[in-house]
Design a protein that fits this description.
InterPro entries: Aminotrans_3 (IPR005814), Aminotrans_3_PPA_site (IPR049704), Class-III_PLP-dep_AT (IPR050103), PyrdxlP-dep_Trfase (IPR015424), PyrdxlP-dep_Trfase_major (IPR015421), PyrdxlP-dep_Trfase_small (IPR015422). The protein is of the alpha/beta class and about 400 residues long. It has a domain at about 60-285: 3-Layer(aba) Sandwich (Aspartate Aminotransferase, domain 2), CATH 3.40.640. It is about 40% helix and about 15% strand. The protein has helices at about 35-40, 45-60, 70-85, 95-110, 130, 140-145, 155-165, 190-200, 270-285, 285-300, 325-335, 360-385; strands spanning about 15-20, 20-25, 30, 90-95, 115-120, 150, 170-175, 205-210, 230-235, 245-250, 310-315, 315-320, 340, 350. The strands form three sheets. It has a seven-stranded mixed sheet with strand order 4-10-9-8-7-5-6, with helices on both faces. A four-stranded mixed sheet has the order 1-2-3-13. Strands 11-12-14 form a three-stranded antiparallel sheet, with helices on one face. The radius of gyration is 21 Å and the shape is globular. It starts with 13 loop residues before the first strand and ends with a helix. The protein binds 4'-deoxy-4'-aminopyridoxal-5'-phosphate. 4'-deoxy-4'-aminopyridoxal-5'-phosphate binds near residues 95 and 208.
Length: about 400
């Protein structure tokens, strides 16, 4: 039976992992600066994580949400302590799209309104409302286009104000650091004004922290770099280090009634065991601090490389914008140097999303490979130009 492949695939087959490395079936080691698309937070096959999941599946992997599950309480308490999101309520689900879908649905339930404001190049997932709020016509089907979404430019304060004052907007949804869209960020003034406008207009301010959350930006959530208070925070990716788990945090002023949100698998025992161990490792190994320090090191070296024209993002969610399209460079890094990196809609951008456990030695390996590859990339480009 043929597989339906959503993404163009590289011809590499990782079968195991350890820390910041994955290994193919021949034992070849690959340095993972992509983190399985910002999913691997505490490193591949972290021993504490493996132990926690194994122990839990032996005891009880799943039972319905109709019973008490103390692991959910433990996860919520640990999350509150580490994130500083005091008294927010936690609803657990299974993915980033599902988290945003629930955030948008809750906004609509509570405000009685239906229109959503989202931003250019934003990505919020592939479920119905989440994809409608995503700025990519290739993945928005006619059924989603029925949903009322207005896409504005980042930093368009006047636009947000005009839309919110029309009175029918239930939510403004934003990535504080855009992921797949290319690491663009709004200004502090913009985010803070949007926050104020939402509060003045009975509109939810939803922070999509699916990619930027869980310590990746150097703070627990990327919105915490600003003076804002989101009504709902959507999380996934790094939350389970590869185990499918997502969730939303709901501001204490919002009363979500039983039945508004729900799921069969969300918050199951195994997912909670994974989620708790991720938080414990983030805390024990001071990974938020490491993200900050390693980011500074990454950026310091990037500034010395002439082909890198812009450095975007925060923490270990970085984009290096080159003066050429990086498709060939990415291939070269994978096949010749055995280093995974990420791409973006902006073809000149190389995305760096390593596990938060990355260290200077790994960053040095990347730059050594990059410097070695650059003259070859230049030669290949020149050839291409001559062929035209
Ligand atoms: N929001 C953001 C910012 C994302 O980057 C993604 C995934 N790339 C999603 C939502 C969707 O998450 P998932 O694929 O887990 O549904």
């Amino acid at each position: 039976m043929p597989l339906f492949n959503v993404y163009p695939l590289y011809d590499v087959t990782p079968v195991s992992g350890k820390g910041v490395y994955v290994y193919d079936e021949n034992g070849t080691e690959y340095l993972d600066l992509y983190g399985g698309h910002a999913v691997i937070s505490i490193g591949h096959s972290h021993p504490k994580y493996v132990k926690a999941i194994s122990k839990q599946v032996e005891a009880l992997g799943f039972y319905s949400n109709a019973i008490q599950n103390p692991l959910q309480v433990k996860l919520a308490n640990k999350l509150e302590a580490l994130s500083g999101c005091k008294d927010y309520e936690l609803f657990l689900c299974n993915s980033g799209a599902e988290a945003n879908e629930n955030a948008l649905k809750l906004a609509s339930f509570k405000t009685g309104k239906s229109r959503v404001v989202a931003f250019k190049n934003g990505f919020h997932g592939r479920t119905s409302a989440a994809v409608a709020a995503t700025d990519n016509p290739n993945i928005v089907a006619p059924i989603n286009a029925q949903q009322k979404v207005t896409i504005l430019e980042l930093n368009d304060i006047a636009g947000v104000q005009a839309e919110l004052e029309k009175g029918d907007v239930c939510a403004v949804i934003v990535e504080f650091i855009q992921g797949i869209g290319g690491l663009d960020q709004g200004t502090a003034e913009f985010f803070e004004k949007v926050d104020t406008l939402c509060k003045a207009n009975n509109t939810f301010f939803i922070a999509d922290e699916v990619q930027s959350g869980y310590g990746r930006s150097g703070k627990f959530f990327a919105y915490q770099h600003y003076n804002v208070t989101p009504d709902v925070i959507a999380m996934a990716k790094g939350m389970g280090n590869g185990f499918p788990i997502g969730g939303i945090l709901i501001h204490p002023n919002i009363e979500a009634k039983f039945g508004m949100l729900g799921t069969t698998f969300g918050g199951n025992h195994l997912a909670c065991a994974a989620g708790i161990s991720v938080l414990e490792v983030i805390e024990d190994q001071k990974l938020m601090e490491n993200a900050k320090v390693m980011s500074e090191y990454f950026v310091k070296i990037a500034k010395t490389i002439p082909h890198i024209k812009k450095i975007k993002g925060k923490g270990l969610m970085l984009g290096l914008e080159f003066d050429f399209e990086v498709g060939d460079l990415r291939k070269r890094l994978i096949y010749d140097n055995h280093i995974f990196t990420g791409g973006a809609s902006n073809k000149k951008l190389l995305r760096i999303l390593p596990p938060l456990t990355v260290r200077k030695e790994h960053i040095n390996m990347f730059y050594e490979a990059l410097i070695e590859a650059l003259p070859e990339v230049e030669a290949a480009e020149e050839l291409q130009t001559q062929n035209i």
